Amino acid sequence: MAKQVAVILAGCGVYDGSEIYETTLTLLRLDQLGIEYRCFAPDIDQQHVVNHLTQEVVEGEQRNVLLESARLARGEISPLEALDADNFDAVIVPGGFGVAKNLSDFASASDNMQVLDALKEALAGFRQEAKPIGLMCIAPVLVPRLLGDGIAVTVGNDPAVSGAISAMGGLHRTCSVEDIVVDFEHSVVTTPAYMLATRISEAATGIFKLVDRIAEMMD
To answer: Which NCBIfam families does UniProt cross-reference here (predicted)?
Structure first.
């Protein structure tokens, strides 16, 4: 039976949702390895909508995270509340500002952030079963709140974000764009992706390594 991976999305677009390249590269690599996947997203309003041409907030417009995430998943997506860790062998969370705005309030609260309750509940089963958990770009900032203290992660070398991770009880490891950080004790794999990448090929190298390591840990 093929391995099953849950992919958690936070909208569609780098500035107010999930990073599109990171998500697509993740799904591509899973497919290349013959691993089946299912996408999930919370059925909530986005914090705000950003014009990706100007990077300015669009006043008076509201979008739903699940509906926007369905754009990335080509409609094959379920509400986050439906995610049951018993049905999957691992979980991956791509980055994008939606992680810091919709899955949490890190964008405004920094190390005082709170994480969406539905995300905590969805990840709890993976943590308890020691199933692999992959996070990329800004998403590793969630780890101390989601999974506990003392877990090694990376966002690359951003001093503000790495400082916030440390302040919340996490362990940040400096990492290049093409590499990964693996906390074997807690089954957590992270990579900087577009926290450092300047080209899609750079992001792909680290993301493919992350997915490959997740695949190895599922065996």
So the answer is: PRK11780.1
What pLDDT is stored for residue 55 in this prediction?
A: 94
175 tagged catalytic: no
- The dihedral sign for the CA sequence 86, 170, 16, 117: positive
pLDDT above 90 (res 1): no
Model confidence pLDDT, tens digit, residues 154-208 = 999 999 999 999 999 999 999 999 999 999 999 999 999 999 999 999 999 999 9
Identify the active-site residue in 12, 39, 137, 175: 137
How far apart are alpha carbons 217 and 185 in whole angstroms? 12
| Tokens encoding 76 | 């094959």
pLDDT at residue 143, rounded to an integer: 98
Instruction: Tell me how far apart the alpha carbons of residues 135 and 35 are, in angstroms, rounded to a whole number.
Output: 17
- For position 219, what pLDDT does the model report? 84
Give the C-alpha separation, 30 to 7, whole Å: 10
Answer whether 179's CB lies under 8 Å from 191's CB.
Answer: yes
The residue behind tokens 């990073």 is 19
DSSP assigned state of 43: -
Which of 192, 146, 187 is closest to 170 using CA atoms? 146
- Note every long-range contact of 26-32, with CB atoms under 8 Å and residues 24 or more positions apart, other chains counting: 26/92, 26/94, 26/136, 26/207, 26/210, 26/211, 29/207, 29/208, 29/211, 29/212, 30/5, 30/211
